[in-house]
């Protein structure tokens, strides 16, 4: 066993069901893998029900229905009803595109607990540019309906250089739509976001401003609206405790049935992530080598191994360590004790020096869609040859 | 500013929260968007009685009978006030 010899293995509390990679939006910071076009065979309704039953039996209480865009799945109502029957608290994480009043009502009747609607910005123009679709007015209408049907509502805004300065307008929009919770999510540089990193990373001045405004609204709206704001880890010197520990709280199931300790983990080399088509959740969580790989502290390289703070941050994010240092067992280079910390600070300094300069900003964002996925990951070659 | 509930106030679960028994945790929990609070055994027993029909006096009497104790009123009111501040419960209009 990889963890401590005395503590029993913690069981999953969160099941994140990525129902599909299909999505009508094309956000360039999407955390889905770049090779989404390679995954065609989605789990069936019965597969998902089996997964939900097995994870619930182990104690999972929170269920996230996500994607891609989960509304694309026609069996969504049926899956929500099964989740309710099993006793999950069910969270629908959606762009709102593909939703209408009839569906919001049907979800409520099926037992859906909460709807999180994502916005890309506070203005129609920027929202639609980032989303790659005309969705802004529709999203606002959906947010009003979510409230009308008595759901608690979380509005999620992913922040980056193009919208960070809109923070005040973003929060005013949330107030106007009567959000119960606002997640000012900082872009995490995996997948598509890593590809677009130089176009998305906010500047130091933007971060300072956003933090100030968020604080002001937090104080003003105390008891009415909860606002979550986290400073981007690229501007920190200690890494975040990723997923609250590898294989310790979160279980993600990708559209093709691959089980992952975190939705970005699929890219890590040398790990064979088990599929729910072949194994049950109990084996996957408790026994599979992949879920045990980074449990506990014994896998750590230096400087984590001898670091007094290792139990606090668990060495940070394994994916970031792999992407930026080439070894997933290294310290997350966000940490200034990491010999690779410059991989972070070099990008930060470059962006701070060049942001706003026309030639630097002229580089286009690469949008998340199947065509770009095929081109970037060279999936289209065999077909066209 | 917190105001202690009156004996005649009738608490109920706020509809945007869920309260249920969790077998795997062996405790009562409060569920809300992307989060969960595990309750102590006594907190769970108080929440269980916030059903929109029992008033505060009845809840206290019920708990004192269950635990064969007296003088629980202060602790119950303190918990109810905290629960209201978290938004878990609200008071039915008289």
Helical content band of chain A: 25-40%
Q: Could you tell me the mean pLDDT of chain B?
A: 92
Going by helix content, strand content and strand pairing, the class of chain B is: alpha+beta
- Separation of the first and last Cα atoms of chain B: 22 Å
CATH topology of chain B, anyone? Arc Repressor Mutant, subunit A
Q: What would CATH call the homologous superfamily of chain B?
A: Coenzyme PQQ synthesis protein D (PqqD)
Quote the average pLDDT of chain A. 92
Number of strands of chain B: 5
Can you identify the CATH class of chain B?
Answer: Mainly Alpha
Number of helices of chain B: 3
Distance between the termini of chain A: 48 Å
Radius of gyration of chain B: 13 Å
- Main pleated-sheet profile of chain B: 3 strands, antiparallel
Ranges of chain B where pLDDT stays below 50 over 5 or more residues in a row are none
- What number of structural domains do the residues of chain B give? 1
Per CATH, the architecture of chain B is Orthogonal Bundle
Largest sheet of chain A at a glance?
Answer: 9 strands, mixed
């Amino acid at each position: 066993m990889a963890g401590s010899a005395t503590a029993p293995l913690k069981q999953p509390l969160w099941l994140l069901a990525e129902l599909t990679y299909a999505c009508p939006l094309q956000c360039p910071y999407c955390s889905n893998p770049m090779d989404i076009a390679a995954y065609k065979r989605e789990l069936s309704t019965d597969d998902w029900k089996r997964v939900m039953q097995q994870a619930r039996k182990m104690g999972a209480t929170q269920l996230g229905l996500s994607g891609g865009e989960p509304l694309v799945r026609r069996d969504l109502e049926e899956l929500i009803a099964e989740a309710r029957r099993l006793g999950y608290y069910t969270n629908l994480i959606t762009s709102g595109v593909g939703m209408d009043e009839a569906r919001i009502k049907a979800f409520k009747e099926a037992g859906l607990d909460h709807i999180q609607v994502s916005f890309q910005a506070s203005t129609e123009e920027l929202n639609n540019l980032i989303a790659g679709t005309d969705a802004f007015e529709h999203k606002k209408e959906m947010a009003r309906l979510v409230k009308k049907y008595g759901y608690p509502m979380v509005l999620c805004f992913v922040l980056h250089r193009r919208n960070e300065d809109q923070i005040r307008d973003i929060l005013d929009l949330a107030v106007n739509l009567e959000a119960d919770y606002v997640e000012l999510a900082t872009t995490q540089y995996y997948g598509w976001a890593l590809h677009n990193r130089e176009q998305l990373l906010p500047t130091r001045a933007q971060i300072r401003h956003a933090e100030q405004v968020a604080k002001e609204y937090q104080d003003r709206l105390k008891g009415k609206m909860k606002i979550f704001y986290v400073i981007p880890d690229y501007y920190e010197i200690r890494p975040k405790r990723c997923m609250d520990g590898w294989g310790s709280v979160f279980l993600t199931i990708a559209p093709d049935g691959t089980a992952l300790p975190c939705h970005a983990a699929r890219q890590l080399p040398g790990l064979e992530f088990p599929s729910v088509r072949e194994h049950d959740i109990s084996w996957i969580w408790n026994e599979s080598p992949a879920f045990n790989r980074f449990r506990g502290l014994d896998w750590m390289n230096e400087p984590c191994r001898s670091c007094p703070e290792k139990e606090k941050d668990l060495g940070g994010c394994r994916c970031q360590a792999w992407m930026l240092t080439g070894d997933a067992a290294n310290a997350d280079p966000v940490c200034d004790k990491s010999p690779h910390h410059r991989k972070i600070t070099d990008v930060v300094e470059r962006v701070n020096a060049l942001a706003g300069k026309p030639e630097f900003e002229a580089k286009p964002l690469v949008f998340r869609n199947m065509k770009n996925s095929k081109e970037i990951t060279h999936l289209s070659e065999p077909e066209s040859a | 500013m917190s105001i202690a509930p009156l004996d005649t106030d009738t608490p109920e679960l706020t509809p945007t929260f869920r309260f249920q028994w969790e077998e795997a945790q062996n405790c009562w929990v409060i569920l809300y968007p992307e989060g969960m609070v595990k309750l102590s055994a006594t907190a769970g027993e108080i929440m269980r009685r916030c059903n929109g029909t029992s008033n505060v006096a009845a809840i206290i009497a019920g708990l004192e009978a269950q635990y064969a104790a007296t003088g629980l009123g202060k602790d119950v009111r303190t918990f109810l006030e905290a629960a209201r501040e978290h938004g878990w419960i609200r008071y039915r209009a008289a």
